[in-house]
Amino acid sequence: MSELENPGVMQKLIAFLSALLERVAESNDVTRRVTTPPQSDSVFHGLSRPSITIESYLERIFKYANCSSSCFVVAYVYLDRFTHRQPSLPINSFNVHRLLITSVMTAAKFLDDLYYNNAYYAKVGGISTKEMNLLELDFLFGLGFDLNVTPNTFHAYLSYLQKEMTLLQPLSLVVVPPRSVIAFNDDEASHQKQQQLAV
C-alpha cells in the first residue's frame, strides 16, 4: 500500500481508472441506445452528461477529499460490487460521476479515521447535500451494506490495477534497440532475411 502514497503512482492510477470507467460508460451508453426496453433510471442518473471529464473529476476528488490513497482502490471494489449486485444500473455517462463521488466518500468513511462530512463531499462533487445523502443511502442499500474489503481482496484489486497500468505504459517509453544484421556467411544472411520477412 505504501506505493500508493507516491503521487506519480496515484496520477497513473487516476488516469487508468478514469480511462477504464470511460470505456465502460461509453460501451453501456451504446447498449442503452440499442436496447429496446428503457433501462430504469436511478438517483445516480443525471439529466445530462456532466461537462467535466471522468479523469478531471477523479483528480478533483483526489485533490480535495484528502482521503487515503487506498480509498480509491476500495472505491473501485465498491463500484465492481455495486454493478454486480445492481445489473439493471450499469455505469454510463449519466451516472458515473455520482457513482464515483459516492464510492470514494463511502470508502473514506469506512477506511479512514478522519474524513469530511457529506456536505463537503457534495461541494467537491458539485451536487447538493440532500442529493449526496440520498446517493449514499441508495449506494449502501445497493451494496447490501457489504463494505468490508479483506486484505486479500484489496491486494487482488490493487495487483490487477498495477498490472494493467504497466501493460498500458506509453510505447514512447519503451526503447527498442536498432536491429543490426551481421552475417558471417551467405546462408546466415538469407536465413535472417527469411526471419525478417516472417515477422
Descriptive report:
The chain has 199 residues and is mainly alpha-helical. It contains eight helices and no strands. The longest helix has 28 residues. The two termini are 41 Å apart.
Radius of gyration: 22 Å
Helix content: 55-70%
Order of SSEs: HHHHHHHH
What global shape is seen? globular
In percent, how much strand structure appears in the residues? under 5%
Largest sheet: none
End-to-end CA span: 41 Å
Helix/sheet category: mainly alpha
Number of helices: 8
Number of strands: 0
* Weakly predicted, low-confidence segments: 170-199
What's the pLDDT, averaged over the residues? 80
Query: How would you describe the oligomerization state of the chains in this entry?
Result: single chain
Short description:
The protein is mostly helical. Helices cover 62% and strands 0% of the residues.
Question: Which properties best describe this structure?
Answer:
199 residues, disordered C terminus, 62% helix, 8 helices, mainly alpha
How is the topology of this model organized?
Elements: H1 7-34, H2 54-65, H3 70-85, H4 96-111, H5 118-125, H6 129-142, H7 151-167, H8 186-198
Helix pairs in contact: 1-2, 1-7, 2-4, 2-5, 3-4, 3-7, 4-5, 4-6, 5-6
